[in-house]
Amino acid sequence: MEPLGVSRRIQRTLEIIPGTLVWGTFVCAVIFSLFAPVWVIYFIILFDLYWLFRVAYFILFLLIGWRAYHASARIDWQKRLEQEKLAWPDILHCIILPMTKEDVSIVHATLEALLNTRYPAKKFLVVLTGEERMHDHFQSVAVEISKRYANSFGHLLITEHPDGLPDEIASKGANIHYAGKKAQEWIDRERVPYDRVIVSAFDIDTIVHPDYFSCLTHAYLSQENPTRCSYQPVVLYNNNIWSAPSPMRLAAFSTTFWLLTELARPDRLFTFSSHSMSFAALVDVGFWQKNIVSEDSRIFLQCFFRYHGEYRVVPLYVPVSMDTVLAPTVKRSLVNLYKQQRRWAWGVEHFPYMVVNFWKDRLIPLRKKIKFLVIQIEGMYTWATAPILIFFLGRLPLVFAPPAVEQTVLAQNLPRILEVLMNISMGGVLIIGFLSFFLLPPQPGAPKRSRYITMAFQWVLLPITIIVFSALPALDAQTRLMLGRYLGFAVTEKTRREIS
To answer: What mean pLDDT is predicted for residues 480-484?
Structure first.
């Protein structure tokens, strides 16, 4: 775990807090169910009411984000750039594509998508960066890519991240940190001003929308202080959605819908997965951290603290599309999905970092400090606890309640109350299930109506999926941090299958 510039004792105390809150909730639920079941009944009802409010809140902002997403799709962003006479020809896009052991066909698809954008490809500095520990595979890919695309972009830079560099872990962050510095060397040679360069950190399977860079450039040039902003697109996981099993599809849709709600509330938005930012800010904060797992959201916090809270994320409603988890077998796919969700949940590592930096920085308003800490801890806490409390612990006090409590009106009506609250909450599932059909790409191969039927009925698995592949990975991550068993970076295995 990264050192935070405080004593080891203070750091460990901060790392223990999130997991303690979660496990303290579960332990207290069991103890109070034994000795004060009425209190637990009241708590469960209040918690379910809170969760119902959260569902309604989620749906409201999902619909706001959904409307903005479709409004953005109707805009000709390249035409708008030209009509508004913005200085877009001066902007260079640096696109960093880290890879490990992906097949060359995935790299081809990503680069072809870049060539198919409406923004001139000659304004792209494309950085393909591999890992020395996978030297043979990367070099075979690099040779083929270099032959085919050497003259397709403004410049194609191919780098290989050395293994075992000091003060880093084997991770995407370490790879793109190295690639960013190599890109800086080229940018310096070409004498391109850093504030005229927008850098996008993508996964290697990222397929950009044809208007993505036009929209991004417009957003950048429209900001009063564009170097003090990151830019977050909608992330779809539908490159291989038709060939993925139901749990992977549910996780993919859930992530996209969560991000849409966050985009609709930019005042609380962090960067996630594929994102873009000014190269000037990236250099100013020393590039992505190379010794953590969650570098995609940490880069926002690095900038946030570097500029004393005067840094924000601008939502982009033009999407990028990525692969959902898919391995050669269903079992491996499920294991990899769990590991991916646990890696995302490892964002809990930001909590100690935020507390320490908020304590040190006297220029950030107290109100903003409290707001971001509440967002962080509330999100991590409910991620790990809410599904388990709702589906398992809700009836626990009735199991241990003495006869006198069982005969009360409250105890007898608890199952009915919980059922009503859950049925209302399930209305939200119907809405997101309906919206998910509009995010699907065309069916590969021969279209079949049965596939749409499967897509509809898969949502009945959501209660199981949200526990096994959401709450439990989050609980796992927070428990590991609490115990000091730090998580390494696990590369998510993704494949694309042909569908007949």
So the answer is: 95
The answer to whether residue 20 scores a pLDDT higher than 80 is yes
What span, in angstroms and rounded, lies between the C-alpha atoms of 252 and 324?
6
* Closest listed residue to residue 171, CA positions, set 494, 486, 496: 486
Specify the pLDDT at position 413.
64
Q: Are strands 92-98 and 124-131 parallel, antiparallel or unpaired?
A: parallel
| Continuous H helices in 264-349 | 279-284, 295-306, 330-345
**How far, in Å, CA of 104 to CA of 108, rounded?**
6
Q: What pLDDT does residue 389 have? A: 84
Residue of 404 and 350 predicted with greater confidence: 350
Beta strands in 140-243 (DSSP E): 155-161, 197-201, 207-208, 229-236
DSSP string, 455-486: HHHGGGGHHHHHIIIIIHHHHHHHHHHHHT--
Assess contact for 65 and 78: CB atoms under 8 A.
no
Strand locations in 144-221 (E): 155-161, 197-201, 207-208
3-state secondary structure of 207: strand
Per-residue model confidence (pLDDT) at position 447: 74
Grouping H, G, I as helix, E, B as strand and the rest as coil, residue 129 is: strand
Q: What CA–CA distance (Å, rounded) separates 243 from 206?
A: 17
Report which secondary-structure segment, H or E, holds 97.
strand 92-98
Q: Give the per-residue pLDDT at 114.
A: 97
Q: What is the pLDDT of residue 414?
A: 65
Residue given tokens 């490892």 in the structure block:
346
Give residue 126's identity as a one-letter amino acid code.
Answer: V
pLDDT (0 to 100) of residue 412: 63
- C-alpha distances out from residue 434 to 208, 375, 404, 427, Å: 25, 28, 45, 11
Nearest to 323 by CA among 246, 261, 239, 207: 239
DSSP 246-273: HHHHHHHHHHHHHHHHHHT-GGG----S
Give me the phi and psi of 298, to 5 degrees please: -65, -35
Please report the pLDDT score of residue 47 as a whole number. Answer: 83
